[in-house]
Amino acid sequence: RDISDIELIDMCCGSGNFLIWSIKNKLFFSGYTLIDNDIKLLKSIKSNLRKNTSKDLTIKSNTNNMNLILIRGSHNSSKVLIKKNDCDEFNYKTKRFHVISYSAVLDLMSKSSIIKALKRANDINVIYFSLCFNGMVKWTPSNIFDKYILSFFNNHQRMDKGFGSALGFKSIDFVKRCAIKKDMNIIIKNSPWIINNKSNKDKTFMNRYLLDVKKALFHMEGIDKDILRKWFSEKKNDIENKSIKLYVGHQDILISKK
């Protein structure tokens, strides 16, 4: 639906996946401001939009692709401002933005980054943490190495990802406690990925997730690379030749002032 009077700022936006999700779900804000410190990811937003949205959406841009106009039909349009900046330090006129989004990033944030994020709340906006990893990954059928791999993956999520020492899945409990201490409204809903390998698209997603885990853990101190390789090989075989389900636990968190 059109949200003609609401603007969104997407902190740590990466390549614009939350923007794409909003458009696919027909949540058209009047304006979007996308912030990230990675210029390569920011410059990929326009091409990522073109690849993953309907042809009914017209995308216009300036010469460096850092400011876009999204046009739907003949009268409806939204401006997209793309800015390179540190998400912890970026300053703006808070009253201007009604939705402040942090998508798939809470578990990578430090305590100080989360506290800074909550300070952005005011009387007219909400803070939306989406796809917050809760530490749960379950493959069905399971593999004898699944718990070993998950333990290392959760430790990896607590390494510094640019915000200082990350909290990993414990960030959900931390942000909840902070919000309650500040007497803020907080709503938490489950939003897991549940993928079955019934289609080529599902298999592609599973294989990409599998490869991401392998790459993340391969150079970790203490990891048994033989176990990692064996786990990876057996999972790839299961994805191609068996009926298998992947569950990755996430939660969405909406916070506002009372």
List keywords for this structure.
ten-stranded mixed beta sheet; alpha/beta; 258 residues; single chain
Structural overview:
The protein is an alpha/beta fold and 258 residues long. 33% of the residues lie in helices and 32% in strands. It has eight helices and ten strands. It has helices at residues 17-24, 39-43, 45-52, 111-118, 146-156, 171-181, 200-217, 225-241; strands spanning 2-11, 28-36, 57-61, 67-72, 76-84, 99-103, 126-140, 184-190, 193-196, 245-257. Strands 1, 2, 3, 4, 5, 6, 7, 8, 9 and 10 form a ten-stranded mixed sheet that branches. α4 packs across α6 and α7 (200-217) runs antiparallel to α8. The longest helix has 18 residues, at 200-217. The chain is globular, with a radius of gyration of 20 Å. The mean pLDDT is 92.
Please give the structural blueprint.
Blueprint: E1 2-11, H1 17-24, E2 28-36, H2 39-43, H3 45-52, E3 57-61, E4 67-72, E5 76-84, E6 99-103, H4 111-118, E7 126-140, H5 146-156, H6 171-181, E8 184-190, E9 193-196, H7 200-217, H8 225-241, E10 245-257
Helix pairs in contact: 4-6, 7-8
Instruction: Compute the separation of the termini in Å.
Output: 26 Å
Can you tell me the overall shape? globular
Helical amount: 25-40%
Number of helices: 8
Mean pLDDT: 92
* SSE class: alpha/beta
Would you kindly provide a brief summary of this structure?
By secondary structure, the protein is an alpha/beta fold. It contains eight helices and ten strands. Strands 1, 2, 3, 4, 5, 6, 7, 8, 9 and 10 form a ten-stranded mixed β-sheet that branches.
